[in-house]
Amino acid sequence: MTxxxxxxxxxxxxxxxxxxxxxxxxxxxxxxxxxxNFGIDEVELLxxxxxxxxxLGRGNNIGRxxxxxxxQVLKLENDIDQNGIDPTQPxxxxxxxxxxxxxxxxxxxxxxxxxxxxxxxxxxxxxxDDPIKKEWINKRFTKLLNNGRQFNQLNNxxxxxxxLITFGIKYGQLTTQPQIEREIEFQSNNSLTxxxxxxxxxxxxxxxHATGANVKLxxxxxxxxxxxxEYVNLSTDPYVKDVIKDPDSHNYYxxxxxxxxxxxxxxxxxxxxTTDKKPWLNVQASVExxxxxxxxxxxxDNVHTYSLPTLSKEIDxxxxxxxxxxxxxxxxxxxxxxFPAQDHVxxxxxDYEFIRY
Length: 357
Fold this sequence. Notes:
The chain is α/β, with parallel strands linked by helices and 357 residues long. The chain has three domains: 1-151, no CATH class; 249-326, no CATH class; 328-357, no CATH class. It has helices at residues 3-7, 23-26, 70-83, 105-114, 131-146, 158-170, 177-187, 194-211, 225-234, 238-244, 265-270, 296-325; strands spanning 43-52, 92-95, 100-103, 118-126, 250-255, 281-286, 338-340, 354-356. A hairpin with a 4-residue loop joins strand 2 (92-95) and strand 3 (100-103). It is flat.
């Protein structure tokens, strides 16, 4: 149900009068953005036409997990003020089934603020009879559209992708981990880093474990700090009660997958007192995915046969130095510390000055 239907508004010529859209710009022949269905067979692109906002239903902003972003609305308004309406940029996409927006809610709000009565419209339909699968396809398509604009585009966020993948798992549209990984990569074009994509994969694997969803997972999994905490909280292994959650025990988690420096363990170890009831540090570690050259056992052994022993040797050398000089190397009285100049008033960064300390 559109706004026009609800209020029984009769269309008039004044609806089409807008200083931002002249007759040439309203003509779809002059819209040059290459629209696509991204290879989703069930999505059929139909006609294009200049579309009045009042004739559309906003739907539930299906492509945006957090809804409209006010800063993005303001950015679009400034873009329109400076550059006008750009026919080389994506049109709004309208689902012909109910005349609701698939994408374009930010442009809708910006238009209302600026008195713009319509926009370039591309209509589409989803050829699918299964209502769950149809909603899944619509979600996939609209999130892909989020990444289509080159300038002033609010790309998919981690939350947007996480919401889509969770929906796909929950309703049986994603049934294997490779499908999950491909969809995350597919949807992350132009928006998420490889590290963010890997984090979502780890979170989705944890979601499958927690919910018992019917998804065939890969043999090996990784962890993020978040999914590791969830793993500990859901575990019934006696190790959790006896060690990790023992109030007298000291524990430290190392995540090799995330690239966290193993040297951070020094801070945790320095807090242990010789008078503590259990004055030692238990290490829990998750490692990177194994390979044919480095199987899982090898990567685990490497933590305790190379990484930690190497750190211990470095600490031993520091201790020898401390005994010899009564201080650490960075505390030696002959040290000449300095800062590169950062103050353009009282210092001279243009001369590449260093401020001695």
